[in-house]
TrEMBL record:
<dbReference type="GO" id="GO:0045087">
    <property type="term" value="P:innate immune response"/>
</dbReference>
<dbReference type="InterPro" id="IPR055578">
    <property type="entry name" value="DUF7154"/>
</dbReference>
<protein>
    <recommendedName>
        <fullName>DUF7154 domain-containing protein</fullName>
    </recommendedName>
</protein>
<dbReference type="Pfam" id="PF23673">
    <property type="entry name" value="DUF7154"/>
</dbReference>
<feature type="domain" description="DUF7154">
    <location>
        <begin position="165"/>
        <end position="273"/>
    </location>
</feature>
Length: 284
């Protein structure tokens, strides 16, 4: 498992990170001021394939590691971005104390979860922790897992979140987000990042489709999914870049269809390279 942390305070963001394999005794902590140095350190500390639990009933130590991170005395965790790849699920069913601590420090948690776990029993708390901190959670397997995690890590290049909405839906219908502006300077055009997730668990047969359009209020389509040029959905999540104009106002319209009336959660997120302050957190 890898935990990557990015502090996003202007004028010059500082990258902090920890790279942790949960079967390791001593986590590796460090920091860097450039993405290149950050990547070099991550790739120089790969997981040790010889280590393992050897028992599928044992849950991940993820939450113990997060507590160590939250309670460390080496650096401040306020405003951090935490990116986690999970193969072994935790067993805990209540992690409210950790979620409260994450929220109080404005820490956004992003989790890519393997739909085929190596052990553990509870993936619901992973989604809850990410969603309640304005992060997001994607369930995927095989190559979709790789692409979903790579896309999640790319948030480090556009770290400032300016849209974060969660919707509970059933059956089929339409969602229209409130009109918004990007934090991009007036007259400038920059890439922003859009993310949507379609279920709060491993993708199942109840999911039929989610299509959406982001367009300016004067009718110009900035992004449409699906289309010939989009980045496809990987597991329960889809992410891509959107060319956005700092002068314009935008609306995001989502059409969804599920084959049952079981409640489903759709997470909507957008990010920019231009600074934006913390968004309000969902009720908890």
């Amino acid at each position: 498992m890898k935990i990557q942390v990015h502090h996003v305070f202007p004028p010059k963001p500082t990258l902090f990170y920890s790279l942790i394999q949960l079967t390791s005794i001593t986590p590796h902590f460090g920091w860097a001021h450039r993405i290149s140095n950050f990547n070099a350190s991550i790739f120089s500390h790969p997981p040790d394939p010889s280590l393992g639990y050897g028992d599928k009933t044992i849950g991940s130590d993820l939450y113990k590691v997060l507590k160590k991170f939250l309670n460390n005395k080496t650096f401040s965790t306020c405003g951090a971005i935490v990116v986690i790849l999970v193969k072994r699920y935790p067993n805990e069913s209540n992690v409210s104390d950790i979620i409260y601590q994450l929220r109080s420090n404005h820490i956004l948690v992003y989790i890519t979860v393997d739909s085929i776990p190596s052990g553990g029993s509870n993936s619901a708390t992973l989604f809850e922790m990410s969603s309640k901190t304005n992060g997001y959670c994607v369930f995927a397997s095989d190559y979709d897992l790789i692409f979903a995690f790579q896309s999640m890590g790319a948030i480090l290049y556009t770290p400032y979140q300016f849209v974060a909405q969660n919707f509970v839906v059933t059956g089929s219908g339409r969602i229209e987000l409130p009109v918004f502006k990007t934090p991009i300077h007036e007259g400038w055009v920059q890439w922003t990042r859009v993310v949507i997730t379609v279920q709060d668990h491993t993708l199942d047969n109840s999911f039929v489709s989610v299509n959406y359009t982001i367009s300016s209020t004067d009718g110009v389509v900035a992004y449409k999914f699906p289309s010939d040029h989009d980045d496809q959905r990987h597991g329960t999540g889809q992410a891509d870049l959107v060319a956005s104009n700092g002068t314009l106002h935008y609306k995001w319209t989502i059409d969804y269809q599920y084959s049952t009336n079981t409640p489903q959660i759709i997470e909507c997120r957008m990010y920019s390279y231009s600074y934006h302050d913390f968004l309000p957190l969902p009720d908890f």
